[in-house]
Amino acid sequence: MIERSVSWFEAALNKAASALIEVSSLAVTWPRWVKRSLVMAGDAMLAVFAVWLAFSLRLGEWRLLDWSVIRFAGSLLLIWFPVAVWQGVYAAIFRYTGRGTIVTLAAAVAIVCVPLVYFYMIRSYPGVPRTIALLAPMIFFAMMATARIVGRYVLVDLFHSQPAVGSERHRSLIYGAGSLGQRLAASLAAERGMQLVGYLDDDPSKKGRRLDGHRIWHSDDIDMVIERTGATRILLAMSDISRSRKQEIVDRLSGHPVKVHPLPPMRALLDGTLRFDDLQSIEVDDLLGRSPVAPLYDLLSSAVSGKRVMVTGAGGSIGSEIARQIVDVVPSEIVLVDANEFALFQIEKEIEAKVAALDTDQRPTIDCRLVNLTDRSDVERLFARHRPQTIYHAAAYKHVPMIESNIVAGVRNNVFGTINTARAAQHNGAEKFILISTDKAVRPPNVMGASKRVCEMALQAFDSAGSDTVFAMVRFGNVLGSSGSVVPLFRQQIERGGPITVTHRDVIRYFMTIPEAAQLVLQAGGMAEGGEVFLLDMGEPVKIWNLARSMITLAGLTIRDESNPDGDIEIVATGLRPGEKLYEELLIGESALPTRHPRIMRAKEQFLGIAELEPHLDALETAVINGDEGGCRANLSALVPTLPPAGASLDAAESGCQRPGGPANHLPGRTVAANGTG
What family does the Swiss-Prot or TrEMBL record give for this protein (predicted)? Predict the structure, then answer.
């Protein structure tokens, strides 16, 4: 009998809870003015009830209809609503009720007490005990606070404990059992899509303890915790976590289908308005990037500020970012040059928007020119029209296998596009010409790298011939997110379900963000005096195989291999492509000198004089005009001996291009990788 009664009670309780959840789900969708009106009506009833209860407690009898009760209740309501609106009581989002809401209520009630105390305690009124002026507002405050807390429980803790129909519920662990972790949990408590299953922390003294009812585990037990809790999300609640620590966490999760989210913006946490959908996943950029170094403004501005500046390849990854940053240094004119109409259109609209946001007296003129730099007469007309003072030459073909299959087009564009532009700069009195080069120009076994090395040699020869134009080169490696680079390629392969293709398990590359690379290029240009090769410090090396593993983990997927045949994504080694090196380098010689900037080095390298170089360039141009791929390659090999002639063993060339001691060299002699630039 007793068991039957208990079962009946549990069933009735479950039905009541379900009904409450159903009503709550409808209430959440009502217009805001409807919900606000209902809350105000509820507060009015609570005010009347609080006054009646205060009189009854004070007088020791239940006084229901009494003129004194009605008068005091009317006074309370008359004062309360203007004060509450003024204090923003009804501007709050009720399902996010927290400490801030209660404090606002307390402040509003305290203000209401002032006139009530004056009229009913100091001056007094017949039939109204003096203490009612304090007792009634206190009861009113307690009732409103309780109503809001109960409402939050219904709208959040009860309603959101049930997943929405068709929605996915994420079992989440918060990494960091401190004040930030607690605030993060409170901010996300209103989200139906999240269920907090516990905390992780590096502090062993917190192991086994509880925070707001949730268990704290030590981070060393992360594998066991994920298995036990079924967690699919880990939210990092650490404000000063290093990139290496993020990488360590990601590596630990490689066998689990878990996504990692960094700490969201503090304002969303403090306001209590954070939504689960607002959480960003950790991106590979967060692991590969590094803390920026403050730029030296005089270096940024010396070649740009108040000058006519031209950017070739302005629609490309590096060229477009250089153009963006040039705007901030206030040139007098920006000339954007590209052969790709759509890319040029996009960067034009973006630069126009940036310029429009500047003060009128700081706005440079903008001109976008569709020009093929291999057409010498078009290039001469372009320079004669604009007479740029500083040129950043980022236009180039950069993809190694593509240029290996299209030798003539690659040489024509990279070598003679650069030479045409450099000569036009000389003829029209340009002050500085900065070539955006690549680490693939160092001991290159491929046509793309050899073509860029010939560009460097040509500019070095022009500068040594006594040119009034300062020629300099900036050499660096991979930039994150550039068109055709490995990171977006891996993302696409993951989205398709794999496999991820890596050319070799031992391929090592260096990475830099596009904004940092562009900023360093501008500063290197400010230091250029003539003939230098500037080398950018590319940071720590990354094994591409490990990068692929990290990206799979960041996507919340598992790696399919021999140890985990049921994993989601497989990584496949496809073999080195034609002309590809295991390791890349920045320096041809044996030493590099520091500069004023800690991430820019300077090198002076051997080169051919203009008289010795020109016959080779003439022969190379003849091969290009005749469409002779063999002749192009042979003439490139004559200038760049590490490029094997047609039919030579690529493996032999590859081994001959590696520095003794392998890839572990740092500047000077650092091995750094690139997908090129432009």
Answer: Belongs to the polysaccharide synthase family.
Residue 535, beta-bridge partner list:
475, 601
* 118 and 192 belong to one structural domain: no
Tell me whether residue 44 is exposed, middle or buried, using C-beta atoms within 10 angstroms of its C-beta: 0 to 12, 13 to 18, 19 or more.
middle
Q: Please give the model's pTM, rounded to 2 decimal places.
A: 0.66
Q: Is 414 among the domain residues?
A: yes
Q: Compute, in degrees rounded to 10, the torsion defined by CA atoms 606, 609, 610, 614.
A: -80
Indicate whether 175 and 317 sit together in one domain.
no
Q: Phi, psi (5° rounding) for residue 567?
A: -65, 175
> Where a domain ends, among 111, 138, 158?
158
Residue 345 and residue 272 share a domain: no
Q: Are residues 453 and 586 in the same domain?
A: yes
What is the domain extent for residue 640?
A: 306-482+510-539+581-664
Instruction: Look up residue 500 and give its two tokens.
Output: 């991820």
Q: Which three-class secondary structure state does DSSP give residue 217?
A: strand
CATH number of the domain that 228 lies in?
3.40.50.720
334-356, pLDDT tens digit by residue?
999 999 999 999 999 999 999 98
Contacts of 15 (CB under 8 A, 6+ apart): none
pLDDT tens digit string along 567-607? 788 888 888 777 666 766 655 556 678 888 888 888 877 78
In a domain, 396, yes or no: yes
Question: What's the total number of domains in the chain?
Answer: 3
Residues 143 and 191 in one domain: no
Q: Which residue has the tokens 């076994």?
A: 445
Q: Are residues 145 and 189 in the same domain?
A: no
Write the pLDDT tens digit of every residue in 509-534: 777 788 888 998 999 989 888 888 89
Residue 294 in domain: no
Each residue's pLDDT tens digit, 535-552: 888 777 778 888 888 778
Measured CA to CA, the distance from residue 175 to residue 118 in angstroms comes to 53
**CA separation for the pair 382, 425 (Å, rounded):** 10
Position 535: which residue type? L
Amino acid letter, residue 565: P
Instruction: Looking at the structure, tell me whether residues 88 and 179 fall in a common domain.
Output: no
User: Are 600 and 519 spatial neighbours (Cβ–Cβ below 8 Å)?
Assistant: no
Residues 6+ apart with CB under 8 A from 73: 47, 48, 51, 52
- What DSSP string runs through 503-563? S-TT-EE-EEEHHHHHHHHHHHHHH--SS-EEEE---S-EEHHHHHHHHHHHTT--EEBTT
State whether 53 and 199 are in the same domain: no
What does the block give as tokens for 98?
Answer: 């927290």
In terms of Cβ atoms closer than 10 Å to its own Cβ (0-12, 13-18, 19+), residue 401 is middle
